[in-house]
C-alpha cells in the first residue's frame, strides 16, 4: 500500500487563518469529487471557521474521561475504518488525553499516512521542537506541546499562512480569534507587535530553508551545475592567515545588503596534509564566522582554485570573497596565484571580490622541497656531500686525468649520492657546483667559464638534468614513504577506535588519555554546552596544566557538532594530524552519549526493579499480610463478644489462632524487612568463626516437631559466617522444604566438608522443581506451582540467597535423587580468604 501524502499549513501565531485555509482547500477538493472528511478540526467558536465546516463530512469524535472531566479526541479507529482519500487533522502538535492510543496527534497522523490516507494538517511555528528555546526567549512562554522538526520536514507540501502583525492584532481586537474577555490580555502579552514580528520572521526563515533544501535536491537530481542566483550566498576563501578575519567581516557586510544573505567560510587544505595554516587562527576564524551568522567548512583539495570553485558551485553561491595575494613580486614567476585563477575561471554567473588587507605582499612562502622527512643527520650529510664533495672530487681529478666523460660520470655519481642522502636541495646544489667545476677545469678552453665545443654544452646540460631528475625521484620516494608510514599509523589509530566501538568500551577518560598520549599533549578535555548562549562545561578531562574553559583557550580544538568540542593544550598540531583528531573527537562524543544512555538505562532499570518490588509488596500487603490480621481480628472480636459464652477449650483455640497469626505476621514482616535491606545493600555481616552445630539446630525451632531431621557431624571444620544471618537463611530453607514435603516424609538437614568449603544440604521429598525454574524460585515474590496466596509472600528463598551471598557463600537448588528438591548452601571454611568482600565487617543490623 502506497504511503499517504502530508500537507501542512504553517503559521506564525494563532489566528493567522491556518484552519480556515485548510477547510477552504477541503471544499475545493470535495467540489472536484475527492472523498474528504474532517477527522478533527477545532473551530474555537470562531464564526467564520465554524461556517466552513458546513458541507463537510465529519467523523464523530470519541470522548475520554480524565481527572473528572470529559475531553473530545479524534477517533483514529473510526477514521481508519472510514478510509477516506483525504483526512483533515487540525493542530498537529496536540497532546492526546491519557488513555488514547498515541501520546501525540502527529503519531495518529503517522498511522493514517501509513494506511495510505492523505492528511492535511496545521501547526504553528512555535510548536516546532527545535525552536522551543528561541520562542521562549521571544515571548517568555514555554510551549509544552511540540512536534519533532523531522515530522514537519517530511511533509510532501508545506504552505505558509502569513499575516502582518498589524492585521493579526486587528483581528484579535475585533474578537475574531479569542473571546472578548481575553482580548486585552492577549494584545498586551503574547500578541505584542514585537513578538508577532519575531515569530513571523522565524516562520519565513524556516520555510525559506525548506525551499532551499528543495532547490538543492532538485539541482542535485537534475545535475544542474550553473548557478541560480535565488539568494545571495557568499563564499569566503581562507588561507589560514590573519587576513581571514577581515575577509569574513567584509563578506558579512555584503550579505547584510541582500535579504537572506548567507556567508560560507571555507578553508581548502592540501590532500597530503601539508599546509602553513595555523590551526589556532582557523579556530578563531571559524568562531568569528559562526558569531556573524555564517558557517565554516573544511575542504580537501590539491588544486585550490578548482576546489574552491567546485565548492562554490556546489552550494549555489553567487559571490566569492578572496584576499589580495600575500606573495612578493618575484614569487609571481611560479604562477598567477589563487585569486587570479579563480577570477579567470569563475565564469559570468559567479562574482569574485578581491579584498585588500594589511598582509598584502608581505610574503607567505611558497612550497619548497620537503626533505624534512629524510631525517636531520641525512640532510646534514646530503649538504656536505652536495657542497663540499664536488671541490674535493675536483682536487682528486686534477692529479689524474680520466677524460671528460669519466669526469662527468664521477660528478653525476656524487650528485646521485647527495640526492640519496639529503633529497632535492643538496642534489641541486651538487649539480650546480659540479657543472661549474666541469666547465672550469675539464671543458676546453680550460680555466675559463666558457665552452668551445657545443657537444660539451649538451653533455653538461644532460648532467644537470639527470642530477635534478634523480634528486626529484628520491625526494618523491621519501615523501611517499613518509605518507605510507603516516597512513599506517592513522590506520592503526582508526582500528583502535573501531575496536572500541565493537567492544562497546565506554571509558571517556581512557579515550582522552589515549588522545593526549597519541598527539603528545599536556591535557585533553571534552567541552560541551546546551546552546550557543550557554557557557561551556567540561564533560571529561585528563592531563596537567591550567583547565581549559572554552575551546578558544586551547592550543587545538576540534568541534564535534554544534555544541561540543575536543580541546587540547601543549602544542599546535599540523593539519595532517587534525584528520585523525577529528575521528577521536567523534568517538569521544559517541562515548559520552553512550555513557549517558547507559546511566539513563541503569536508572530506568533500577526504577523498573523498584516498581516491580513495590508492586509485589503492595500485592503481598493487600492479601498475605491482611489474612493473618483478619484472623487475629476475628478471634479477638469473638473473645470480646458478650453475646456468646465461650468454653475454656474454645478460648484456648481462639488464643492459639491469635498466636499463630501473630507468628505468621512476625515471619512475613521479618522477610519483608530482610528483603528491603538486601535491595538497599545495607546488609553487612559480622563474620565469626563458629561451629555449625551451634547454629543449625536453632534454625529448626520454627517448624513442627518431627518434620525435620538433623545430620551435622562434630568433625566438620568451623565456618566463617554471621551466626544471625546463617540461622535466618537455614530457617527459611527448612520452612520452605517442610511446606512442600508430603506428610510422613521429614526434611533432612545435613552438612559435609568439601575442600575449603562446607555444604549444608536441606533435602525434601516434595514434587521438585524443573531445571528451567530453579533460578526463578530465588527471585523475590515468586511462588512455584499452585502454592496458595496465604502460603507467604515468596521472599524466603530470595532472602536466604541474599544472606548467603552476603557471607561470601552460595545457594543453589539441585534435584533430590529419587524425587524432591535439595537446597545446597555452600559456606566458607574458617581460615580461608573470601573470594570477594564488600566493606569492612560490621554488625548486621
From TrEMBL:
UniProt xrefs under SMART domains: HATPase_c, HisKA
Subcellular location: Cell membrane; Membrane
Signal peptide, first to last residue: none
Pfam families: DUF4118 (PF13493), HATPase_c (PF02518), HisKA (PF00512), KdpD (PF02702), Usp (PF00582)
Keyword annotations: ATP-binding, Kinase, Membrane, Nucleotide-binding, Phosphoprotein, Transferase, Transmembrane, Transmembrane helix, Two-component regulatory system
InterPro entries tied to this protein: HATPase_C_sf, HATPase_dom, His_kinase_dom, HisK_dim/P_dom, HisK_dim/P_sf, Histidine_kinase_KdpD, KdpD_sf, KdpD_TM
Residues spanning the membrane: 380-397, 409-437, 457-478
Enzyme Commission (EC) number: 2.7.13.3
Recorded topology in the membrane: Multi-pass membrane protein
Catalyzed chemical reaction(s): ATP + protein L-histidine = ADP + protein N-phospho-L-histidine
Domain named Histidine kinase: residues: 620-831
Top class in the EC scheme: transferase
Protein name: histidine kinase
Taxonomic path: Bacteria, Bacillati, Actinomycetota, Actinomycetes, Kitasatosporales
